[in-house]
UniProtKB/TrEMBL annotation:
Annotated family: Belongs to the LysR transcriptional regulatory family.
Domain annotation HTH lysR-type: ranges: 9-66
Protein name, entry field: LysR family transcriptional regulator
Matching PANTHER family: HTH-TYPE TRANSCRIPTIONAL REGULATOR YBHD, NITROGEN ASSIMILATION TRANSCRIPTIONAL ACTIVATOR-RELATED
Role: NodD regulates the expression of the nodABCFE genes which encode other nodulation proteins. NodD is also a negative regulator of its own expression. Binds flavonoids as inducers.
Keywords: DNA-binding, Transcription, Transcription regulation
């Protein structure tokens, strides 16, 4: 049960405490907030009286937080962040949405889901600019931790997902091997991996889970990985290359189905076993989330739990 004084602390007092911690002195905090030094000292004294302990230690002209002060400051920052996000969210909803939302994409197998979420968010909040950034998972998670990316769609690999990150699992889409419509391998009644790897391939970037999975499979089959390869993380580039030259490539089954219907390629009978790591939507568990990112996450989670749409 929370102590009674927790209900009596005012936002004004918390803002004063944050200003003192940020500027390191009562004088500079007062100048920053355009109030008197006496008003700053009074706000600190009021909170210290409420909780029954000192928040700051005075050392000459400097002032540093006590252990209790650090706890109060940490909570004050969370309150300030939540209020800021609340304000942004109210403005976002009332004005039809605004701002920049950066989404990292490491797994192209969920492009259909991402496209549906983007369409829904843009329809409801047309002023939100959504930027989709493709990269390897380590790079995207580094950008996420630095606050330069809001959300990441990628493989939920245990070694990379430390406690500062959280996420929701998405049903993984299997990969298939596709070939250009006029590829010579399609004329073989029963093509095998050794024969296939002698052709030109379009492969995922080194270090990505699907590339490592493919390499592990070839090693298990004692087949050399393709020596003639084009490397890309772009689904659009893969589709364009498939229509330009005889090529083999790896593609998520749902995306490959779209390409087949559009005359881009053909799915080969070569089997690629499923992987263990699920795909997920990943976000920071410690940093405040922007209002537009919250909306995007909510729409994604809603679609994950929604019943399938009958065609």
């Amino acid at each position: 049960m929370a102590p009674r004084w927790a209900e009596r602390i005012k936002l004004r007092q918390l803002r004063v405490i944050l200003a003192v911690d940020e500027h390191g002195s009562i004088t500079r905090a007062a100048e920053h907030m355009f109030i008197t030094q006496a008003a700053v000292s009074k706000a600190i004294a009021e909170v210290e009286t409420l909780i029954g302990t000192e928040l700051f230690e005075r050392k000459g002209r400097s002032i540093t937080p006590t252990d209790a002060g650090h706890h109060v400051i940490r909570t004050a920052r969370r309150v300030a962040s939540e209020l800021k996000l609340l304000g942004e969210e109210v403005v976002l909803i009332s004005e039809g949405g605004a701002g920049l939302l950066i989404i990292g994409l490491q797994a192209i197998s969920i492009l259909q889901l991402v496209a549906r979420v983007v369409a829904t968010v843009k329809a409801r909040h047309p002023r939100v600019t959504i930027r989709l950034v493709e990269d390897t998972l380590p790079n995207l998670l580094r950008e996420l931790r630095a606050g330069r990316v809001n959300l990441v769609f990628g493989r939920m690999i245990r070694g990379l997902l430390t406690p500062d990150l959280d996420g929701a699992q998405i049903l993984s889409e299997p990969y298939v091997v596709v070939a250009s419509c006029d590829h010579p391998l399609l004329r073989e009644p029963r093509p095998d991996w050794e024969e296939a790897c002698a052709h030109v391939w379009c492969l995922p970037l080194p270090g990505t889970p699907i590339r490592e999975h493919f390499a592990d499979l070839m090693a298990a089959l004692h087949v050399a990985v393709p020596a003639r390869a084009i490397e890309t993380a772009s689904a659009t580039t893969i589709a364009t290359l498939l229509q330009t030259m005889p090529l083999l490539a790896l593609a998520p089954a749902n995306l490959a189905g779209e390409w087949v219907r559009g005359g881009v390629c053909t799915i080969t009978p070569l089997q690629l076993p499923a992987r263990l790591e699920p795909i997920g939507l990943i976000w920071s568990a410690t940093a405040p989330m922007s209002s537009s990112a919250r909306i995007f996450r909510s729409e994604t989670l809603a679609m994950l739990h929604a019943p399938p749409v009958e065609s």
